[in-house]
Amino acid sequence: KDDWGTLWLTDFEDGAEPLGVVEVVNCTPEPDGSFKVYTLGVPPTMRTARAAVAWTFGLGEKDYSPAAMS
Length: 70
Description:
Blueprint: E1 6-10, E2 19-25, E3 37-42, H1 49-56, H2 66-69
Antiparallel strand pairs: 1-2, 2-3
């Protein structure tokens, strides 16, 4: 878990491909003031939530800077 989300990684005992998911919270509030939580599939080779979120944008961890993209 880091400032970008929570990275979940699991291996399966039956030899199935490992699973990677990053859990993120949308920064835009819903009309009722709540914030939606999303899970995004990522490669199981990810090691940080930031790297996983960056991957979803086609970027490397060091290149991902949302403030610079806005």
